[in-house]
C-alpha cells in the first residue's frame, strides 16, 4: 500500500490521516509535502471550518523517516518540517486526534494543532537526544509554551514520555477519549461542531486574534486587537440573521 495522506472533507471538517502503517506513520518528504498540500486545500475550501489531523492506528506519528533524516541538510530538514508547520500556520481551527505514539516530528505534529485529544494509548515522546539529535521544528518552543519550562525540560533533556492522562495533566492534551480510533475521531468531530456552525469569516478572524493576543502583556492591547474584527462581525449579515433568530426564541412562549 502506498503511503499517503488520506483526505476526507465532510460536515464542515477536513479529516487528514497520515496513512503509512508500515512505518508507524513516519513522515517522509513526500508525506510532509502531501500534508502541507492537504492543509492548504482545506483552507481554500470555504465549506471547511475545521481541520482534524490523525494517524492510521496503532500509531499517531513515529517521527521523521529515518532515511530522510540521516541524509538531510538544512533544506531537507525544512522540507520534513513543512507538514506540521502547515498545521501550525493553518488559518482554520485545528485538532490533533492522537490515538497512539507521537514521537519526535510526530510530537511536533501533535503540538502544532490548536487542541489535542488523546486516546487511551496515546504517548507523547520527544526522543531527540536519545538519537543523539538536537530537537528541531520548534519543539522546544511549543512544549514550553504549552506545558511550561519544567515539563519541557523533563521531556526534552531527560526523555520523560507522557501517557494520555499525564499529557492532560501537563496541559498538552485537552482530554482523554475512551474507546477505539473511531471514537477518538468522532470526539474530534464533535469538538469541531461549534466551529462548523460559526460564520467562517468570524471564525478565521477569531483565530487570528488569538494568535495576536497570545504574546501581549496588557489587557488594553488585547481590546485594541479585537475591536476592529468585532465591529466587522457586528455589521455582518450573519450576525443580523442570528440575532433575529435569538430574539424570536426569546419572544416565543415557553
Describe the structure.
α4 crosses α5, α5 packs across α6 and α9 runs antiparallel to α10. Helices cover 52% and strands 15% of the residues. The strands form two sheets. It has a six-stranded mixed β-sheet with strand order 1-2-3-4-6-9. Strands 5-7-8 form a three-stranded mixed β-sheet. The protein is globular. With 254 residues, the chain is an alpha/beta fold. The chain has eleven helices and nine strands.
First-residue to last-residue Cα separation: 58 Å
Radius of gyration, in Å, reads: 19 Å
Fraction of residues in H or I helices: 40-55%
- The quaternary state of the protein chains shown equals single chain
Q: Which regions have little confidence, pLDDT < 50, spanning 5+ residues?
A: none
The major beta sheet can be summarized as: 6 strands, mixed
Elements, N to C (H/E): EEHEHHEEHEEHHEHEHHHH
Number of strands: 9
Find the structural class using helix and strand composition: alpha/beta
Let me know the average pLDDT.
97
Strands of the widest sheet, in order across it, are 1-2-3-4-6-9
Secondary structure tally, helices: 11
Beta-strand percentage range: 15-25%
General shape: globular
Task: Sum this structure up briefly.
With 254 residues, this protein is of the alpha/beta class. The chain has a 6-stranded mixed sheet. A 3-stranded mixed sheet has the order 5-7-8. It is built from 11 helices and 9 strands.
Amino acid at each position: 500500500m502506498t503511503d499517503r495522506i488520506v483526505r476526507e472533507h465532510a460536515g464542515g471538517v477536513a479529516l487528514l490521516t497520515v496513512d503509512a502503517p508500515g512505518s508507524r506513520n513516519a513522515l517522509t518528504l513526500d508525506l510532509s509535502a502531501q500534508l502541507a498540500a492537504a492543509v492548504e486545500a482545506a483552507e481554500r475550501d470555504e465549506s471547511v471550518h475545521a481541520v482534524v489531523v490523525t494517524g492510521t492506528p496503532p500509531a499517531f506519528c513515529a517521527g521523521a523517516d529515518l532515511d530522510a533524516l540521516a541524509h538531510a541538510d538544512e533544506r531537507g530538514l525544512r522540507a520534513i518540517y513543512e507538514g506540521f508547520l502547515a498545521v501550525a500556520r493553518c488559518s482554520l481551527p485545528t485538532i490533533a486526534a492522537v490515538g497512539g505514539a507521537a514521537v519526535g516530528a510526530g510530537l511536533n505534529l501533535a503540538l502544532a494543532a490548536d487542541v489535542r485529544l488523546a486516546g487511551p494509548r496515546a504517548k507523547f515522546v520527544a526522543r531527540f537526544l536519545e538519537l543523539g539529535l538536537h530537537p528541531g521544528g520548534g519543539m522546544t518552543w511549543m512544549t514550553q509554551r504549552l506545558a511550561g519550562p519544567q515539563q519541557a525540560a523533563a521531556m526534552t533533556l531527560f526523555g520523560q514520555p507522557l501517557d494520555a492522562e499525564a499529557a492532560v495533566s501537563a496541559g498538552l492534551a485537552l482530554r482523554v477519549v475512551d474507546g477505539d480510533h473511531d471514537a477518538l475521531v468522532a470526539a474530534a468531530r464533535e469538538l469541531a461542531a461549534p466551529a462548523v456552525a460559526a460564520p467562517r469569516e468570524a471564525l478565521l478572524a477569531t483565530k487570528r486574534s488569538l494568535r495576536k493576543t497570545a504574546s501581549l502583556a496588557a489587557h488594553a492591547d488585547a481590546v485594541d486587537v479585537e475591536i476592529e474584527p468585532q465591529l466587522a462581525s457586528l455589521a455582518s449579515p450573519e450576525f443580523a440573521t442570528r440575532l433575529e433568530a435569538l430574539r424570536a426564541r426569546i419572544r416565543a412562549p415557553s
